[in-house]
């Protein structure tokens, strides 16, 4: 599948910003099944400094600064991405059991496993806890295959939790999400990651986009799509496998990857520091267009 993604972020300030420094992770990365054919980041006002780098996790990060007074700040990322479908029909009942995978993560010393080991540790937004371990335990009986356990956990999160964009913010702890069973895709990804890490497994956060569809008979509105988040679990010999608990779906060819890391903080779409500005108004729109195969 071939997609065009336009992600626009616009700030309006009540007072002039004297200078600003920003870092964006809005340009999709190239993976085994995803090829970012074309991408560009437009910034207004035109930045004084602008440079792109690859961060620790292999994501594309763009740094820029604006050193002239401004009351409007607009960042528009436009990308074209081709996705080859991933394997959707896995036999979840086969493969290594989750306890064996946990043991291998501690014993094997190959490059891929050593890299995955960092994703078993706590991170700023995700800390393993007895409560998360207890919630996950139903999905992780002794001897169950890892993929079957993770697939079951994904389905339970989808069933047990209500999607509620008004309930959480970036500061809402996972314990609150677990207690009230409400949140958004970011929360559900963090929740699953915390459950897996609580069982000694390697899980990482994936940021990107997903193609959405309008109601029957309605035209798709420009900007009606949104950023999305899901998670991946490390499976020895297979590598990283993606799961989307918000939609109870194994990503195949509708999920567009921007980047991954330990949690949201490693792939924040846009962050920075400003001097001045007063109060602000923020508008974000994302448009994902399917251009065909």
Automatic annotation (TrEMBL):
BP-aspect Gene Ontology terms: proteolysis
Pfam family, one: Bact_transglu_N
Molecular-function GO terms, alphabetical: peptidase activity
The entry's keywords: Hydrolase, Protease
Annotated ranges, domain Transglutaminase-like: 177-247
Keyword Acyltransferase part of the UniProt annotation: no
Lineage: superkingdom: Bacteria
Protein name: Transglutaminase-like putative cysteine protease
Organism in which the protein naturally occurs: Sulfurirhabdus autotrophica
Source organism phylogeny: Bacteria, Pseudomonadati, Pseudomonadota, Betaproteobacteria, Nitrosomonadales
């Amino acid at each position: 599948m071939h997609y065009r993604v336009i992600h626009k972020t616009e700030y309006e300030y009540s007072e002039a910003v004297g200078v600003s420094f920003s870092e964006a992770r809005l340009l999709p990365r190239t993976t085994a099944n995803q090829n970012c054919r074309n991408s560009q980041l437009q910034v207004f006002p035109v930045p004084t400094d602008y440079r792109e780098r690859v961060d620790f996790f292999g994501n594309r990060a763009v740094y820029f600064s604006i050193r002239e007074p401004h009351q409007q700040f607009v960042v528009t990322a436009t990308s074209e991405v081709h996705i080859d479908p991933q394997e959707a029909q896995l036999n979840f009942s086969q493969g290594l059991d989750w306890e064996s995978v946990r043991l291998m993560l501690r014993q094997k010393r190959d490059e891929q496993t050593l890299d995955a080991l960092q994703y078993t540790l706590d991170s700023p937004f995700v800390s393993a806890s007895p409560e998360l371990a207890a919630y996950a335990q139903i999905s992780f009986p002794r001897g169950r295959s890892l993929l079957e356990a993770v697939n079951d956990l994904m389905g339970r999160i989808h069933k047990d939790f209500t999607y509620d964009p008004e309930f959480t913010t970036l500061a809402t702890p996972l314990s609150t999400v677990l207690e009230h069973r409400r949140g958004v895709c970011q929360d559900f990804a963090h929740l699953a990651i915390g459950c897996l890490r609580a069982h000694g497994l390697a899980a990482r956060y994936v940021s990107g986009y997903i193609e959405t569809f309008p109601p029957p008979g309605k035209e798709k509105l420009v900007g009606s799509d949104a950023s999305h988040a899901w998670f991946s679990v490390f499976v020895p010999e297979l590598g990283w496998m993606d799961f989307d608990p918000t939609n109870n779906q194994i990503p195949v060819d509708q999920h567009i990857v921007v980047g991954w890391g330990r949690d949201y903080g490693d792939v924040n779409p846009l962050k920075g520091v400003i001097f001045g500005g007063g109060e602000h108004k923020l508008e974000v729109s994302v448009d994902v267009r399917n251009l065909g195969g």
